[in-house]
Design a protein that fits this description.
Number of helices: 12
Strand content: under 5%
Structural class: mainly alpha
Radius of gyration: 21 Å
Number of strands: 0
Shape: globular
Order of helices and strands: HHHHHHHHHHHH
Helix content: over 70%
Length: 242
């Protein structure tokens, strides 16, 4: 019995150390290590060495959801330690919490889990003050953090300490599009995830990503994607069911 107990303790310590190394990879945006530890984590979940799926007896789905909700918090905290803004971290955390709760299949939770790790560990959404970002790069970081809020170009320019006209010209020259269009593309990108992985209403999704009403959301979505949000969701659901 003692030998079995020691073996179990060693395995738990090893698994927890793996998790700590994994979280540190998220802190530093070490994508190579993250890819390695994602596979290790999937093995732990598949073998269920930590009895994760037994935490809610007879309900593997609820057990996995609880696990992911707690790790959503850990990933969020780790990303903030690595420079992710609190506002951006909060949005990502809320988004994945909603997706997790609205999902009804373990395979879908696997997909959400991997997407969650990739997003928290994405270096492009971190802001490194040690670099010398252009005005357009600063504007993109501002959009990443505030895209769900209604803000005027004048407000962005004031926060970035530049003149609004200079900001708009610089952005268009460097990125080939307008600030408003870039923001709408970001909003649509986030909306697509919620459409695919949640059962939120169109109104709730519209408001969550920054649109005042579902009609305008649908108009912009169709302009960007060629289909309405409802048609996009229906097509995705059909692909998942095939």
């Amino acid at each position: 019995m003692e030998a079995n107990s020691n073996s179990m303790n060693q395995r738990i310590e090893r698994d927890h150390q793996t998790r700590e190394d994994f979280l540190q990879a998220i802190v530093t945006c070490d994508t190579k290590k993250m890819d390695y530890y994602k596979q290790e984590l999937l093995k732990v979940l598949k073998d269920d060495t930590l009895n994760i799926f037994k935490r809610v007896p007879g309900n593997r789905l609820r057990s996995y959801k609880n696990f992911l909700l707690s790790h959503n918090t850990l990933y969020s905290y780790s990303a903030e330690k690595g420079g992710l803004s609190a506002a951006k971290s909060h949005f990502i955390s809320e988004k994945y919490a909603i997706m997790i709760e609205h999902t009804d299949q373990i395979s879908k939770l696997d997909t959400i889990h991997l997407n969650m790790i990739d997003e928290y560990g994405d270096p492009s959404i971190r802001y490194d003050k040690r670099t010398n970002p252009s005005i357009a790069d600063k504007a993109i970081h501002y959009i990443e953090t505030n895209f769900a809020d209604e803000f005027l170009i004048e407000e962005m320019a004031r926060d970035l300490h530049v003149h609004p006209s200079h900001l708009m010209r610089s952005f268009k020259k460097e990125k080939g599009t307008t600030i408003s269009h870039w923001r709408n593309q970001k909003r649509i990108k986030e909306a697509k995830e919620l459409l695919m992985h949640s059962n939120l209403s169109m109104t709730d999704i519209a408001i969550m990503v920054g649109f005042n009403n579902s009609q305008y959301f649908s108009k912009i979505f169709k302009k960007e994607e060629g289909v309405t949000p409802k048609a996009f969701k229906k097509a995705h659901v059909n692909r998942m069911d095939e």
